[in-house]
Design a protein that fits this description.
By secondary structure, the chain is mostly helical. It is built from 5 helices and no strands. The radius of gyration is 19 Å and the shape is flat. The two termini are 20 Å apart. The relative contact order is 0.10.
């Protein structure tokens, strides 16, 4: 990860882009690229979405957009001083405490009535 982060820093520096790599601009670019990833899946059925990576042209687009999202996220983290892997590990730990595995069910299991074990009273359930 560090090698890729440094390549991104060097890439921007060689082109004198640092003045434009502000937290606001990088967050906006990250949002735009996330939207471009979403656009690939817009209007697809769940079955079509699951098969996207089996279609070479769409799979290529997905990989490109994932790379763009990751590049802007890494650049954003560099500018604001966040270690993304440490931040993710801390978030997973908080969510493990916040959303414990229900008694009597396997991780990722259902509620016994065909629906997922989701606490609908809680807002952000992202890991």
């Amino acid at each position: 990860m560090e090698g890729l982060r440094q390549r991104l820093v060097d890439f921007a520096a060689a082109r004198r882009w640092e003045p434009f790599h502000t937290p606001k601009n990088l967050a906006a670019a990250l949002s735009v690229e996330s939207g471009e990833l979403l656009e690939i899946f817009q209007w697809l059925t769940p079955e079509q979405a699951a098969a996207v990576m089996s279609e070479p042209e769409r799979a290529h687009r997905v990989r490109d957009e994932v790379a763009d999202v990751l590049a802007y996220l890494v650049q954003f983290c560099t500018v604001v001083g966040v270690d993304p892997l440490e931040a993710l590990a801390a978030k997973i730990e908080r969510n493990e405490l916040r959303f414990p595995v229900p008694d009597g069910s396997a991780a990722g299991g259902g509620d016994g009535e065909g629906g997922p074990d989701v606490n609908r009273d809680v807002g952000d359930q992202s890991v």
